[in-house]
Inverse folding.
């Protein structure tokens, strides 16, 4: 892999992370999730590079700058994913509580809302 190819691969991953971060910041989880295959593919392509010698000073500077951008984007991505998971958990909790409350309501024989009834209590005695 040449230095140019390495830089292009890293920039592609950075662009995908930036797009995912924008989607996460907007809480557009379907759009963020749709970027996962491209993000995974780009990350794997970048990880496939073990060591590359870059002689050109200008190219080295661009690769370093891209590495710093990737680091910053990855940290923001982690923070935004944590936030999205937290919000999702809260939303699920609200829905679950609402459903439990809905199921606790009962309707009488005339269609009116009535308090839920408890099953009849059964007394059990150990004495015969």
């Amino acid at each position: 892999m040449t230095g140019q190819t390495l830089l292009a691969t890293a920039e592609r991953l950075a662009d995908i992370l930036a797009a995912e971060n924008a989607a996460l910041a907007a809480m557009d989880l379907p759009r963020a999730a749709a970027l996962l295959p491209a993000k995974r593919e780009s990350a794997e392509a970048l990880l496939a590079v073990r060591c590359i010698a870059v002689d050109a000073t200008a190219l080295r500077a661009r690769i370093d700058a891209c590495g710093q951008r990737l680091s910053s984007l990855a940290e923001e991505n982690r923070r935004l994913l944590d936030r999205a998971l937290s919000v999702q958990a809260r939303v699920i909790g609200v829905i679950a509580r609402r459903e439990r409350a809905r199921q606790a309501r009962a309707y009488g024989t005339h269609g009116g809302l009535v308090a839920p009834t408890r099953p009849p209590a059964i007394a059990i005695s150990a004495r015969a």
